[in-house]
Amino acid sequence: MSENQRSKGIYLLPNLFTTGGLFSGFYAVIASMQGHFTAAAVAVFVAMVFDSLDGRIARMTNTQSAFGAEYDSMADMVSFGIAPALVSYNWALSGLGKVGWLAAFIYAVGAALRLARFNTQVGIADKRYFQGLASPAAAAIVVGLVWVGSDFDIAGPTISWLVAIVTLLSGLLMVSNFRYPSFKDVDWRESSFLAILIVIGVVVIVALQPALVLFTVFALYALSGPIITIRSVKELKMEHVVGDNDDADFECNKEEKKGDEPKA
C-alpha cells in the first residue's frame, strides 16, 4: 500500500478517541438543556482529554490520515465551539435576550474561524506558538466559569453580564493575532522525571478545587497572549492584535530569522 493510499485511510483507534471527544461535547449540550451544568462543564473538559490523545495516538501508531484530521476538526467544532456556547447560554445568557444569544453566537463563530485558520497553517506556522487562543483553552474558560458558579451555588442569571463578557472575549481572543505558547518545543522525554513531578503536582492542586483551579489556570493562559505579544514587539500595531496576516510582523521573529541565516 502506497503512502498516498495510507494517508486517505480511516483508522479505528485514533478516530475512536475523536468520537469520544465528540460524544463528550454532545453530552455537554444535552446535560445543559436538562439543567445539569456541572456535568456539562466536566464533559467539555473530558473532551479536551480525548482531543489531546487522538493526535498522539495517531502519531504513535503511524495512523495519521486526512480523514482523521478533518474528523478531528469537525469534532472540535462541536466540543469547543457549539457546546461551550450553548452551555453558557443555557446557564446564564438566555435571560439577556438578543445580547445573550449574540454573545454565544460570536463565541461559536470565533471557534469556527480559529479552527479553519489553524487547518490552513498546518506545516507553515511557528510550532512554538498558537496564533490566537486555542479553542480548547477558550472552551475551558467559558465552561470553567459555569462550573465555578455551579460549585459555589451562584445562579447564572445573577452574573449574566459577566458571563456574556467572558464568552464574548473568549471568542474574540480565538480570532486575534495574539501569540500563545504551544509548549510543543518542550522535549518531555529528556526531562521525564521532572515531567512526572509536574504531573503529580498538577493533579494534587486540581484535586483540591478542580473548578476554580482549572478556570484560573486557563484564564491566566488567556491573559498571557496579549502580554507575550506586547513584550515581543517594539511598537504594537493593529496587525499584532487582529487581521488576516498569518504571520504578523513580530520583531522577535525577525531576530530569530536573522540568527538562522548562514554567515558569509
UniProtKB/TrEMBL annotation:
Enzymatic reactions: a CDP-1,2-diacyl-sn-glycerol + L-serine = a 1,2-diacyl-sn-glycero-3-phospho-L-serine + CMP + H(+)
Membrane topology annotation: Multi-pass membrane protein
The keyword Transmembrane belongs to this UniProt entry's keyword annotation: yes
GO CC list: endomembrane system; membrane
Superkingdom of origin: Bacteria
A Gene Ontology molecular function term of the record: CDP-diacylglycerol-serine O-phosphatidyltransferase activity
GO biological process, alphabetically ordered: phospholipid biosynthetic process
Keyword set includes Coiled coil: no
One Pfam family linked to the record: CDP-OH_P_transf
Family statement drawn from the similarity comment of this UniProt entry: Belongs to the CDP-alcohol phosphatidyltransferase class-I family.
Entry-linked PANTHER family: CDP-DIACYLGLYCEROL--GLYCEROL-3-PHOSPHATE 3-PHOSPHATIDYLTRANSFERASE-RELATED, CDP-DIACYLGLYCEROL--SERINE O-PHOSPHATIDYLTRANSFERASE
Protein name: CDP-diacylglycerol--serine O-phosphatidyltransferase
Source organism of the structure: Gallaecimonas xiamenensis 3-C-1
UniProt lineage: Bacteria, Pseudomonadati, Pseudomonadota, Gammaproteobacteria, Enterobacterales
